[in-house]
UniProtKB/TrEMBL annotation:
GO terms for biological process: DNA-templated DNA replication. Its EC number is 2.7.7.7. The gene is holA. This is DNA polymerase III subunit delta. The keyword Metal-binding does not apply.
């Protein structure tokens, strides 16, 4: 079951006896755990919630807790992180997990506890007897990494939960600043919600006033400074990013990523791809393609290739200690603008 489906189901039904939460999107994992915990009384969330790391504690010790009746309240929640035994990976922790006891429990769980197995892994081993049994007796919730072309759906979901709405251009502004980072998106949207209050609408003016500026936006500004052949502006943007504690090596990668996207979009455009086809091919949000299309016409392919090579050389020089990193980045900007 996908995250959004799980949220809807949690609103309508009582807690399951067993959940398996899996995937690599940590924001979604923590978010769904909070929503499950909200199903028990607030005062019980302190006394009746236990957390275990299965890289340090055996599953049989966890089950002892699960099968112990809660001292306060009517239900307890037991979280068990890193169930490596649900994957095809070998167990290198040295902890001896008794699978038979878990298999028995899955078939006959107690009705006063909710066991949550938190598996922050890309995939589980569907061939295992335990996984198959859990599929029949537990609720599986997928917290997979968000694809760029699905981000608008997530913004819709988050704004609905926060009881507000956004003007359409605000979606693009959010994507430009936060990309697919759901944690950042949530923080920005919560900021909007406080400003416009319940059932309010976020306009582009409000968004422009409140949005936190991320390095990604400045990466595009650096590209625009290269287009304009404005070295002074490029150095100023770089200094602003340094004040934001951005690492030079990360800025080289950021600049290279911008030029790479423009290069790829230019090639796909020559092949007759539409904007949506480009987004699917490159696995990026359509807005990223839109920004690249606005810039690609100002660059020749050979110049873009030069930019990528220059970024790669600068990255190598910094990592090998051949150049002082700040000077190396300024020289990179000089090369790109004076080519």
């Amino acid at each position: 079951m996908k995250y959004i489906e799980a949220v809807e189901k949690l609103r309508k039904v009582k807690l399951e006896n067993i959940y398996v939460i899996y995937g690599t999107e940590s924001y979604l994992i923590e978010s769904i755990i909070k929503k499950i915990m909200q199903k028990i009384a607030t005062e019980d969330q302190t006394d009746n919630v236990s957390k275990y790391d299965l890289e340090e504690v055996s599953i049989q010790d966890v089950l002892l807790d699960v099968e112990t009746y809660p001292f306060f309240g009517e239900r307890k929640i037991v979280l068990a992180y890193h169930p490596i035994f649900l994957t095809a990976k070998p167990n290198k922790t040295g902890i001896d997990h008794d699978m038979e006891s878990l298999l028995s429990y899955v078939q006959e769980p107690v009705d006063f506890s909710t066991l949550i197995l938190v598996a922050p892994y890309e995939k589980l081993d569907e061939r295992k007897k335990l996984t198959k049994l859990l599929k029949k007796n537990a609720m599986f919730i997928a917290c997979e990494e968000i694809k760029a072309w699905h981000i608008d759906q997530w913004i819709d979901h988050m704004t609905k939960e926060l009881k507000m709405s956004l003007e359409k251009p605000v979606y693009e502004m959010l994507v430009q600043e936060s990309g697919t980072n759901l944690s950042l998106l949530q923080k920005e949207l919560e900021k909007f919600a406080l400003y416009v209050e319940e059932n309010g609408k976020v306009t582009t003016d409000i968004a422009d006033q409140l949005l936190s500026r991320q390095a990604n936006t400045s990466g595009l500004k650096l590209v625009d400074a290269v287009i304009a052949k404005d070295l002074t502006r490029a150095i100023q943007i770089f200094k602003d990013l340094e004040r934001m504690n951005e690492e030079v090596i990360a800025l080289v990668a950021l600049l290279a990523a911008q030029f790479r996207t423009i290069y790829q979009v230019k090639i796909l455009k020559q092949k007759g791809y539409s904007q949506n086809q480009m987004a699917q091919q490159l696995k990026v949000h359509p807005y990223v393609v839109k920004m690249a299309l606005e810039r690609e016409k100002k660059f020749a392919l050979d110049f873009l290739y030069f930019c990528l090579t220059a970024c790669a050389n600068t990255d190598s020089e910094i990592k090998q200690g051949k150049s002082e990193k700040t000077l190396a980045f300024e020289m990179l900007l000089y090369q790109l603008i004076n080519k």
